[in-house]
Design a protein that fits this description.
389 residues; 6-stranded antiparallel β-sheet; 2 domains; binds FE2/S2 (inorganic) cluster; Elongation Factor Tu (Ef-tu), domain 3; alpha/beta; 20 strands; Ubiquitin-like (UB roll); globular
Length: 389
């Protein structure tokens, strides 16, 4: 049986968002047209086209998922991006150790835009930081969006701000929902969550239960107290849910519930994703969709240099660090969010030099005009990029 390439979905520097990383898929998806998924997960040219197609698809057809697949007439003008929402915090409560859940609603009580399991929001926090968080509520609840955020003490500060500074009644600018981790509705499912990675998988489990699909979920974490939404999961069907808190499970253990034809959806920290990816080839599962919520690993990194302005400081980017990491040491205020090359927040302008674009966001025209996403993009070994920062 042919296995699908992985569909990567989104991520966030503070512990969660999915971000896009749309779905990394090994195998064959059933609802999305990804018959020829890209060979490269980390932003090389073919993936860019794939990701643009998937993102565009999600934006247009997210409200239609669950109904027969629609296709946009290519002769029609492209849809305009949805305007940002201003939402008010109507709920802020602890749902596990170091995890708070927010409820966000329209200040006038209007119904919120529809979304589908796997979707995420992009929040602009009062400090100006932008962060992506998966929706963990029920799409049938159009009165509020629910997200859950784990405090990352040594993260970029977004999760601390949400935990410590957000209060009921505060208003936030919110973009989305967008879906980079689309649920394809396969009949047999294994959902694998690590810690706060449960957030996009909870709505998927809910939807699978609603549709009467054959689903199993394994949720791994440090301790039972650190796992959010355990009761909500048990309430769906306790026989389908397994928690692992006494050890770090191997990829084979995580995939132990997979049967021939199973589609695996995985969201969690990078080591878990790597373990599941490694074990996938030897499992009977047919497809693997995953969403990471930390910076993508650097593959084939080579050292290069950045010059900050035409007459500015020169900094070296080692093979194992991103240009964004290095840039932020010199420019701590440089905005960023997903660290995976899909949100566009960290965009900078190249004044000279030839970048190696590894993002999934920029168009050919934007690249030609000098745009660069330094969270993932690099340059050839020994080269120098002169940036306008
Ligand atoms: S931080 Fe999102 S594209 Fe760089």
């Amino acid at each position: 049986m042919t296995k699908q390439h992985p569909a990567v979905t989104t991520q966030d520097p503070d512990g969660h968002a999915t971000p896009p990383a749309p779905t990394a898929v090994f195998g064959r998806t059933t609802r999305l047209d990804v018959e020829n998924p890209p060979p490269d997960l980390y932003g090389r040219p073919r993936l860019d086209r794939f990701m643009h197609a998937i993102t565009a698809f999600s934006d247009v057809y997210t409200p239609a998922m669950g109904r027969p697949l629609l296709r946009r007439n290519p002769r029609l003008p492209a849809p305009r991006a949805r305007a940002p929402l201003t939402l008010v915090v109507t709920g802020h409560r602890a749902v596990a150790e170091d995890v708070v859940e927010l409820r966000l609603a329209d200040p006038s009580g209007d119904r919120l835009p529809a979304w589908q399991p796997g979707a995420h929001l992009r929040l602009t926090l009062p400090s100006g930081k932008e962060r992506h968080y998966s929706l963990c509520g029920d799409p049938a609840d159009r009165g509020a969006y629910r997200i859950a955020v784990r405090r990352i003490a040594d993260g970029g500060g977004g999760s601390r701000e949400i935990h410590d500074d957000l209060h009921l009644g505060m208003r936030l600018t919110v973009r989305g929902p967008r879906n980079g981790f689309a649920f394809c509705g396969e009949p047999t499912l294994l959902l694998v969550a690590g810690g706060i990675g449960i957030t996009p998988l909870l709505p998927i489990a809910r939807e699978a239960q609603r549709r009467g699909l054959d689903w199993q979920l394994v949720h791994a974490g440090r301790t039972a107290a650190s796992l959010p939404f355990t009761e909500e999961l048990r309430a769906l069907d306790p026989a389908r849910v397994r928690f692992v808190t006494d050890r770090v499970p191997t990829g084979a253990e995580l995939l132990a519930g997979a049967r021939p034809g199973t589609a695996v959806y995985c969201c969690g920290p990078a080591p878990m994703l790597a373990a599941v990816q490694d074990a996938f080839a030897d499992s009977p599962a047919r497809a693997l969709h995953f969403e990471r919520f930390t910076a993508a690993p650097i593959l084939d990194g080579r050292p290069f240099a950045l010059q900050l302005g035409t007459d500015g400081e020169r900094v070296e980017v080692p093979a194992d660090r991103s240009a964004l990491d290095v840039l932020r040491e010199a420019r701590p205020d440089l905005a960023y969010s997903c660290q995976q090359g899909f949100c566009g927040t960290c965009r900078v302008q190249v004044l000279a030099g030839t970048p190696e674009h590894r993002d999934r966001r920029l168009t050919a025209e934007e690249r030609a005009s000098g745009a660069l996403l330094p969270c993932v993009s690099r340059a050839a070994e020994g080269a120098t990029l002169v940036l306008e920062v």
